[in-house]
Amino acid sequence: MRWTPLIFFAILFSACTNPVNQQLPSVTILKQENIVESPPFASCHASTIVDIPGNRLLAAWFAGPHESHKEVLIYTAIHENGTWSQSQAVADGIINDTLRYPTWNPVLFRTQSGKLALFYKVGPNPREWWGDYKISNDEGKTWS
Questions:
Q1: Cβ atoms 47, 36 nearer than 8 A
Q2: Which residue, 27, 59, 111, 117, shows the most beta carbons closer than 10 Å to its own?
Q3: pTM of this prediction?
């Protein structure tokens, strides 16, 4: 299903409310650090982060040769025991064997049932992109 940006963001922001007024976790950042020290990509942008059980963090961003290039992918990494894991590509814009689009603007979100959702855009440019998502049942190790 292709979503227009307005509908996609309306759904995302309506899901981000805290209707039961529960205590939300807090994260303290002690130092500034790079997630990827020697990146295999020329450019990256639009990072997002979420806490995961075990005093860990999961980050996502889009990266590739340059913004809007068809080889721009969504990457993730997990912060655990003071270090970031190797980054892994988790979403691409591959439609079929001959058609591929860049990915854009990831957003990580934990659902009320505890699953992780990764929302992102796919398309040649902001005027023509659509929303897509993946779900992780194992704290970001694998995605649907």
A1: no
A2: 59
A3: 0.77
